Fold this protein.
Amino acid sequence: MTDAREARLAPYFAVFGAIAGIAIIARTLAAFARIVQPYLAVRYSVWLEVGMVVGQVLFQWLVMARRSWPERLRYSGLVLGVSGLGAVLLWPLLLLNIFAPVTVPTAVGCFFAIVALMFVVHWLFVGYLKLPRILCATWVLYRLFLLAFLVRAPW
């Protein structure tokens, strides 16, 4: 009887987990954006970050158009997990910034080091889930598109 109830509740826990994960990622990246805000072309907010995370999933789903829904959902979990890892890895920098302001070059350097690690984790898990490696290229492409939109032109 417990197994049947757990099976019925599992999708609700998955949705709650996804919403909580997106909220944590959005809050973390919005806090990071405050450090580099002078160099951003847009006013960064939690809602902008929520839109970018959801946009990442929807963009990747387009690439996976011929894949089954369970594969798409597994991949969505992977994207949220990798993004969550990146958010958690930013926490020490954000904590340090409270006590000793971090310079923009230091913040950007840490950010790109974390993104590089995220790419490696993404690559490994795409292989583990036996998903097409093109998802790694489109993951990078989406992020480069966002950078072009977010970063202020130097001129």
Q: What stands out?
A: The chain has a mean pLDDT of 87. Helices lie at 2-36, 46-63, 69-99, 104-128, 134-150. DSSP finds five helices and no strands in the chain. The two ends are 66 Å apart (CA to CA).
